[in-house]
Write a structure and sequence with these properties.
The chain is an alpha+beta fold and 100 residues long. The chain has a single domain, classed as Alpha-Beta Plaits (2-Layer Sandwich). 39% of the residues lie in helices and 27% in strands. Helix 1 runs antiparallel to helix 2. The two termini are 26 Å apart.
Length: 100
């Protein structure tokens, strides 16, 4: 893996149910990309080889939240990018914490 991004999408909503509905639409989009992702309680992490593809996904997450009905959306994004090497993968970071 060359890049990993984590995004927390915070749509402005009138209630928690609407917030969850919109965030669920964003997560469904992220999953539809076919890239490896990990959904956590505060953010979703995605990893891939193509940095530009990941940035396009980050941008589309905002558009999806607006199209889903949010009048405004904030997003907090973390990026790790190593074009000439390898980053720590999601599996290397969290698998040991989720084994039975």
């Amino acid at each position: 893996m060359k890049a990993s991004v984590a995004i927390q999408v915070l749509p402005a909503t009138e209630n928690d149910e609407e917030l969850v509905r919109i965030v669920d639409e964003v997560i469904a989009y992220i999953k539809s990309t076919g890239l490896n992702c990990y959904v956590g309680p505060f953010e979703t992490t995605i990893e891939g080889e193509d940095y530009d593809q990941l940035m396009d996904i980050m941008k589309e997450c905002q558009h999806i939240a607006i199209r889903a009905g949010a009048p405004k959306v904030s997003a907090y994004i973390k990026v790790v990018y190593e074009p000439e090497g390898e980053i720590l993968t999601i599996d290397k970071k969290v698998t040991k914490h989720h084994q039975a």
